[in-house]
Amino acid sequence: MPETLSIAALTAGSWRTMTFAPFRDGIEMCTIAEGSPQVALLRYEPGAAAPRHRHSGMETVLVLDGSQSDENGHYPTGSLVLNPEGSVHTVRSDEGCVVLIQWTKPVEFLEGD
Predict the structure, then answer these.
(1) ChrR-like cupin domain: from which residue to which, for each copy (predicted)?
(2) At the N or C end, where does the chain have fewer CB atoms within 10 A?
(3) What is the reported pLDDT for 39?
(4) What's the CA gap between 102 and 113, in Å, rounded?
(5) Which 8-state DSSP code applies to residue 6?
(6) Is 60 exposed, middle or buried (0-12, 13-18, 19+ CB in 10 A)?
(7) pLDDT in tens, the chain (113 residues)
(8) CB-based contacts of 68: which residues, under 8 Å, 6+ apart?
């Protein structure tokens, strides 16, 4: 990972050269920054889903490629999604996607762990 990472570079596709590792079934993660906040890229295979989970802090998601959905809506490329502390949802991507995600605190998975 480069020392400086810009949103412009990510939206232009620099994420394609980054190293991803398995995270959950059908989802890979590239950790950008650990700690608080944690920043990562998540790459969903078509049809992949993250199980129902609760946010113990703010989560910010920028959809870089493809789209993802949850109980609150459908988010195509370019969408910025803010999930507040205490929110609960299940995320899925029918077509596959790559998102830049930031958690201020770890999430609590409620099912499928």
Answers:
(1) 16-101
(2) C
(3) 95
(4) 21
(5) -
(6) middle
(7) 446 778 888 989 999 999 999 999 999 999 998 888 899 999 999 999 999 999 999 999 999 999 999 999 999 999 999 999 999 999 999 999 999 999 988 888 897 55
(8) 44, 61, 74, 75, 91, 92, 93, 97, 99
CA dist 30 and 101 (Å) reads 10
pLDDT of residue 29: 97
Set out the domains of the chain in order of their start, with CATH numbers: 7-109 (2.60.120.10)
Give the per-residue pLDDT at 112: 55
Q: Are 41 and 61 in contact (CB under 8 A)?
A: no
Q: What amino acid occupies position 94?
A: D
Where b means 16+ CB within 10 Å and e means fewer, 21-48 reads: eebbebbbebebeeeeebbbbbbbeeeb
Residue 56 and residue 34: Cα distance in Å, rounded?
16
